[in-house]
Amino acid sequence: MGSERVEEYLEAIFKRQAVETPVSTSALAEDLKVSLPAVTDMMRRLQEGGFIDYEPNKGVSLTGEGRRKAVSIVRRHRLWERFLTDILGVKWDKAHEEACRLEHAISPETEDRLASLMGDTDTCPHGHPIPDRDGNIRDQDVRPLSEFKPRQKVRISAVAREDAWLLQKVEKLGLKPGTVVSIESKDREGSMKLKLDDRKVVLEKDAARDLLATLLSTDEEITPEEEVPISALRAGESGIVKSYASGRGMLGRCLSMGFTPGSLVRMIENYGRGPILVSVCDTEVALGREIAGKIMVIRKRA
Amino acid sequence: MAESGGKAPVVALAGLPNVGKSTVFNLLTGLSQHVGNWPGKTIEQKTGMLRHDGLTIQLVDLPGTYSLTANSAEEQIARDYLVKEKPELVVAVLNAASMERSLYLVAELIELAPRLVIALNMTDVARQEGTKVDVKALEAALNIPIIPMVASRNQGVKALVEVIGQECIQPAVPRAVRHIEAGSETEGDITRIAQLLTDEDTDPYPRHWAATKLLEGDEQINKLLRERVSEGHWMEVDAFLTEKESAAITIAGLRYDWVRKILATVQQKRPIGQVSLTERLDRAATHPILGLIILLLVMGLAFAVVYGVGVPVQKFLQVSLVERVQALVFEQMTFLPGWLQGLLGDGVVGGVGMVLTFVPILLLFFLAWGFLEDVGYTARVAFVTDRYMHAIGLHGKSSLPLLLGFGCNVPAVMGTRIIESRRARLLTVLLTPLIPCTGRMAVIAVIAAAVFGGWAMLVTVGMIAFSLAVLAILGFALNRSVLGGKRAALMMELPLYHSPNPRTIGLGSWQRTAAFIKRAGTVILIVSIVVWVLSYFPGGSIEESFLADIGRGLEPLGKLMGLDWQIMVALLTSFVAKENTIATLGVLLGQESGGLTEVLREMLTPAAGMAFLVAQVLFIPCAATAACIRQETGSWRWMAFSIGLQLVLSLGLAIVVFQVAKLVGLGV
Fold it and tell me: For a tag site, which of A46, A167, B384, B497 has the least CB within 10 Å?
């Protein structure tokens, strides 16, 4: 049994434990891009080796021994990643795979050298803490960004998955770990509108779930009235258009139909399902529910 | 006047959808209209002539648009026309009952049309809704001549013609272009982008305008400039655009601010609280259940009228005209060789007759449809059916061409143009041929009556339900597979209900019917002649023809469905036009004693009869429809796909139906 494979598995279980315990085998299969039977097979062997507790149908969790071993791998992995990006200039979306290969072939001496070379950096490029020599790992009070609410100010601390596509996207949007963002609004589908220093970006729910963040403050002073999608208005209620949670595609049409910020929208018909009928600029407009869920309004008190 | 020596001055009509623009256009041009397509697009282009004081003016009806940002093909056509063709004058047709929205378009037009006249239409509706507009004050505020109109009642047309004539003979000095962002923060942003571009980059569009559209996120302008501007400059432009991502909202906001500021002084509105007639009617018409019942009643009534009046007229034409001319050919023109008589009588006259006898039914159907369209009901149909269309990946607008398909699939396929998304349009085009058209209904009625006697009515209704079920399942499947599962989004204006305008309805119906005659007519005639040749040679009768050979060749396949070769041939000839099935059966089986009905009853067991009906309703689109599919999708491949799909579907399901029916004992 290759020790590299064992290390890979332990590492994967360790990372998954941050999200769910016990870890399901299907999640592991997905993370490691291997078949489910292969995972179950390996689970049995890891259990025999005393690294994990395995309950079929429920999942696995690391034993003390397993954790120690996993943490040491994680330490080497994250040190390598730091080295690759900071010293060698490898792109952050490539560093993970490289580090996966390098982490198994390193002696404790080299590991110490690497650590001292990297000095006081205590996280990997993706924002995860690097365990110290004794296996202690700094506790982070992080939650997925998707769990925060509008008007909260948070710092992005890490990217949960080291998926190249995701990392590229995060970089492009300027949301690398360390960035401070305010959450402006959140629509029904979970898309979030974020405010950075000078710009605004829209992040879909999936991506927001993959970003880990820490709360900095909740802006209680300015308590604007709650933004709701048009589709949340009941027949007879009115709202003032505030913002759009949709991308650019529909924006032009929304604007030319009269759904501009500040315009008054009155709900004529809303049966909870199917399209809705609103009045905007003296005209009845039919809106499919998916668009109606993306135009945000402030409900007018009757 | 030296400049107008050869070319007539051109006046373009611009306006939002549902503001009575076509009515105004019809009033100005009368019958001197030419209906065609905009170059390279499947969007209708109407042009016409206006004669005034010895001057001939060419009028062009631009597609109805809400703005001039390229959100749709219509908007792109409208603005490209203004920029590239530079019409002498633009007449903006506005809806007096919806000023805010109307003036938004004016705010955009001002930048591209130096000479502008406003036709303020629907002033009667505005009055009913309790809106008052001070025309003089608005004229002064905009510095644009305004003519109040009620086009549906022919009011204000003369004044409009006067002003158009005046502007064409003695053009006013073009207004200086006033930019909407003047004095706002956005002014700097637009200037900044405009400085990064050159006039050549943006040609033929004005540079300043192109810069504005870039900020508004206009994809067409963005694409054009990305190709033209040097890479270094473009990176700078692109970075700036990313930074100013919300500029589209700001600029639209500026336009609405401008509009609202003007309206504040010139418009008086009834306080909100009173519910308009349209809204009260819509509580019923758009209700999920009540609305559906109303829809069924309305459609039922429409069909009752169409068939009640149309079928007798159709029969009358068939007997008194087509059959007489055929008799003339066969009895009087005996000097011709037999085959030529047949070709003329059956091929040509039969083909022309087929088209001709269908004209009354179609004209009536289009009149009924035009009526519903003109009073504003069809938009409600789209709304009510939206939730059901969603299941098959379409939205409500697709149900309009599908309903039109009950009349004839040809205009239905053409009618898919109202759907903005190409994907949804394609899916609708592919589904349309599954709607049983009047031609197919005629065949079903005859066969069901012959085979099922007293059960005929039930079987006919069952067949309609069956083809709609197949349509739904196929739509669901195509949406998930070939067309990749993305849904179309609905955003549609529901116009105010108003009283119908006979002229608009009449002209529209006539144009649709004419399009059918032109498109379908030629195709049907050609295919009719080809099929006749196949059915005559080499043996001199249909029993010994190529067609019969093909039919006999298909007999093994036919046997699986319990159908003889004659029926397979009849099915094949329905490619000419669906109702041809009956004519072919008449030729192949009619001579025997007892007539067609008796023979069919003898020949077809209930199982085979059922299989025949299934094959018939689902069989490949007729030649005219296929030609339209090719035209509307712009692709032979999709046409072939449609034909292949329905061939497999119709024969496959007919086999299944026959085999199952036989198992349960209906095969005797």
Answer: B497
**B100 and B201 share one domain:** no
Show residues of chain A in contact with B382, CB under 8 Å: 286
| Number of structural domains in chain B | 3
Q: What is the CATH number of the domain that holds B29?
A: 3.40.50.300
Mean pLDDT of B588-605: 74
Task: Mark which residues 116-145 of B lie under 8 Å from A by CB.
Answer: 129, 131
Is position A99 within any domain?
no
Residue A43 has pLDDT above 60, yes or no: yes
- Indicate yes or no: CB of B491 within 8 angstroms of CB of A275: no
Is the pLDDT assigned to residue B1 strictly greater than 50? Answer: no
Please indicate, yes or no, whether residues B537 and B650 belong to a single structural domain of this protein: yes
* Stretch among A39-53, B238-252, B290-304, B345-359 having the lowest mean pLDDT: B345-359
Asked whether residue B450 falls in the same domain as residue B481, the answer is: yes
* Inter-residue contact A231 to A211 (CB < 8 Å): no
pLDDT digits (tens, 9 = 90+) for B508-526: 888 888 877 887 777 778 8
A268:B249 CB<8 A: no
Among A62, A82, A111, residue at a domain's last position: A62
Q: Which residue has the higher pLDDT, B548 or B36?
A: B548
pLDDT above 60: residue B496 = yes
Rounded to the nearest 10°, the torsion over CA B130, B136, B138, B143 is 160
- Write out the residue range of the structural domain in which residue B627 sits: 290-663
CA angle B663, B667, B668 (to 5 degrees): 130
In angstroms, the first-to-last Cα distance of chain B is 84
Q: Cβ of B129 and A282 within 8 Å?
A: yes
What confidence tier does A64 reach under pLDDT thresholds 50, 70, 90?
confident
Partners of B377 on chain A (C-beta within 8 Å) are none
Question: Could you say which of A193, A218, A243 is where a domain stops?
Answer: A218
Separation between Cα atoms, residue B292 and residue A206, nearest integer Å: 38
| Interface contact flag, A288 B279, Cβ < 8 Å | no
Nearest to A258 among B100, B286, B387 (CB): B100
| B23/B77 same-domain check | yes
Between CA A233 and CA A297 the distance in angstroms is 9
| CATH code assigned at B190 | 1.10.287.1770
Contact of A254 with chain B, judged by CB distance below 8 Å, is answered with yes
B331 lies in the same domain as B462: yes
Q: What is the pLDDT of residues B364-376, one digit of tens each?
A: 988 998 999 889 8
Interface residue B379 vs chain A (CB under 8 A):
yes
> What pTM was estimated for this model as a whole?
0.69
The span from the CA of B286 to the CA of B272, in Å, is: 22
Distance from CA of B62 to the nearest CA of A (A): 17
Instruction: Report d(CA A32, CA A14) in Å as an integer.
Output: 13
**C-alpha–C-alpha distance, residues B432 and B437, integer Å:** 10
Q: Please check the confidence at residue A88 and state whether its pLDDT lies above 70.
A: yes
Contacts of B99 in chain A (CB under 8 A): 282
B6 confidence band (pLDDT: 50, 70, 90): low
Whether residue B493 lies within 8 A of chain A, CB to CB, comes out as yes
Q: Tell me whether residues A274 and B246 touch, CB distance under 8 A.
A: no
Please work out, in degrees rounded to the nearest 5, the angle formed at the alpha carbon of residue B530 by the alpha carbons of B526 and B532. Answer: 115
For position B158, what pLDDT does the model report? 93
Number of domains present in the structure of chain A:
3
B217 chain-A contacts, CB cut-off 8 A: 248, 251-252
The CATH code of the domain that includes A151 is 2.30.30.90
The answer to whether B492 contacts chain A (CB < 8 Å) is yes
Minimal C-alpha gap between A156 and chain B (Å) = 21
* Domain span at A210: 143-218
Point out the least confidently predicted range of B344-353, B390-399, B545-554, B583-592. Answer: B583-592
Enter the ipTM. Answer: 0.80
* CATH code at position A30: 1.10.10.10
* Secondary structure (DSSP) of B399-435: HHHHHHTTT-HHHHHHHGGG--SHHHHHHHHHHGGGS
Q: How many Cβ atoms are within 10 Å of A198's Cβ, its own excluded?
A: 7
Quote the pLDDT of residue B593. Answer: 54
Does A288 contact B100 at a Cβ distance shorter than 8 Å?
no
Query: Which residue of A230, A253, A254 to mutate against B (max B Cβ within 10 Å)?
Result: A253
Query: What is the arithmetic mean of pLDDT over B487-505?
Result: 84
